Amino acid sequence: MALDKTGIAQRIAQELRDGWYVNLGIGIPTLVANYIPQGIEVEFQSENGVLGMGPFPFEGEEDADLINAGKQTITTMKGASFFDSATSFAMIRGQHVQLTVLGAMEVSENGDIANWKIPGKMVKGMGGAMDLVASADNIIVAMMHSNRAGASKLLKSCSLPLTGVACVKKVVTELAVLEIKDGAFHLIERAPGVSVEEIQSKTEGNLVVNGTIPEMSL
Amino acid sequence: MNKEIGNVHGALKGLESGMTLMLGGFGLCGIPENSINEIVKLGVTNLTCISNNAGVDNFGLGLLLQNRQIKKMVSSYVGENDEFERQMLSGELEVDLIPQGSLAERCRAGGAGIPAFFTPAGYGTEVAEGKEVRDFNGKPHILESALHADFAIVKAWKGDTEGNLVYKATARNFNPMMAMAGKITIAEVEELVPAGKLDPNEIHTPGIFVQRIFQGEKFEKRIEQRTTRSK
Question: Nearest CA of chain A to the CA of B98: how many Å?
Answer without folding.
Answer: 7
